[in-house]
Design brief:
Elements (H helix, E strand, L loop, with lengths): L4 H10 L8 E5 L2 E5 H13 L11 E4 L9 H16 L4 E3 L6 H9 L5 E4 L13 E4 L2 H10 L1 E5 L2 E8 L8 H12 L7 E7 L7 H9 L8 E4 L3 H11 L17 E5 L6 E3 L7 E3 L10 E5 H4 L2 H11 L7 E5 L3 H9 L2 H7 L3 E2 L20 E4 L15 E5 L1 H10 L10
Helix pairs in contact: 2-3, 2-5, 6-7, 10-12, 10-13
The structure holds 3-isopropylmalic acid and iron/sulfur cluster.
Iron/sulfur cluster binds next to α9.
Length: about 425
Amino acid sequence: MTGTLTEKILSRASGKAVSPGDVIEAKTDIVAFHDLTGYHVIEVMEKANMVKIFDKAKVVVAFDHLSPPPDVRSAEIQGNIRKFVRENKLPNFHDINVGILHELLIENYALPGQVIVAADSHTTTSGAVGAFAQGMGASDVAAAVITGKTWLVVPKPFKVNLKGTPGEWINGKDVALELLGKFKADYFNGMSIEVFVEDPKAFPMDYRATVSNMGIEMNADTLMFVPDAETRNFIKGMRGVEVELITPDKGANYEDEYTIELNRMEPLVAAPYSVDNVRTAREESKVPVDQVYIGSCTNGRISDFAIASKILKGKKVKTRCIAIPSSYEMFKQAMNRGYIEDLVNAGCVVTYGTCGPCLGGHFGVAGPGEVIVSTSSRNFRGRMGSNDAKVYLSGPSVAAASAATGYITDPRDLQ
Ligand SMILES: CC(C)[C@H](C(=O)O)[C@@H](O)C(=O)O
Ligand code: SF4
């Protein structure tokens, strides 16, 4: 039998040949939670009187949402989780100085062919390295922490082909927005998206992580890039290990497929209040902007900072601009390459490794009536603060260009 990537991974994890629609019990390779949901995961385990852990090495905990704690309640929650981590001797714990969970999973843990579940919807991000990664609620994650297993409905596979090479200002976000604009936010419900990249070098891991991250905005169960030379090089570069690549069989069956010609793409935005309200940045070029946010587990990686610094170096921002690399590692890389200095000199406020303004938590919450251009994942009403704020999602090139001019700006139109 020929299998898709989804079928091959889930067959391995469940110990039997699977097909779309099957309800299966799958072994989990990594189970993870963060401060905000970890609180509930632990509560579920304690209430059930089942505080045991299937494999301590396979549980990952990171502080990112309430981090560093903006209030007493958040500090208390983090304190309780630290205690749980200490008492259960969990080795893979990342306190406030490491970064956003999904970024840490890609940098340090996720491998092609794994099944990863975590108590956060953007767990799909690990699909970038070819893992079947799905976000789940706290109870399901608690069950996986205890048993090392989870139940799943095998999704229907959909194939996306990325052809050619993206232009200078195009990034993974534009591909995600293109898919959202074309198919809308609920089309991929019950499906897994498998992305085939024609030229592995043309679409690097950072871009892949952005697209996989937004897989959940497309309502897909997961969004995986078929592992290739880029996957191998990325993991070797980050962790010094060689990985085995798992790939779909030739002739595997997909529900449908869609091809994107990368060289024909233009910088896109998602206008308020929906991720699939997609337009070109040029169509929105009259909109004045109050604040720009460059960061989050969607677009806070080194290539995002490279683009932002290329645009803002030597300029002064005309909006408030907040820039947050998604992890300490990304911060250090951006610092060593001079990007942090460029952004600070341009007038940006920079910190690292927190969800911060992405979900209106802290570090730059949107005020009433304000217009925000953000590289993060969601733009529904109230997402980044006030219900009356308007959030436009974009990639880093449009975000940085908009900070430079004070209006939504396609970087090709910068003087
Ligand atoms: C708080 C958490 C449960 C949530 C998620 O699951 O995605 C958050 O990370 C988000 O991006 O909205
Ligand atoms: S950065 Fe935003 S999208 Fe990512 S986990 Fe944090 S709140 Fe969710």
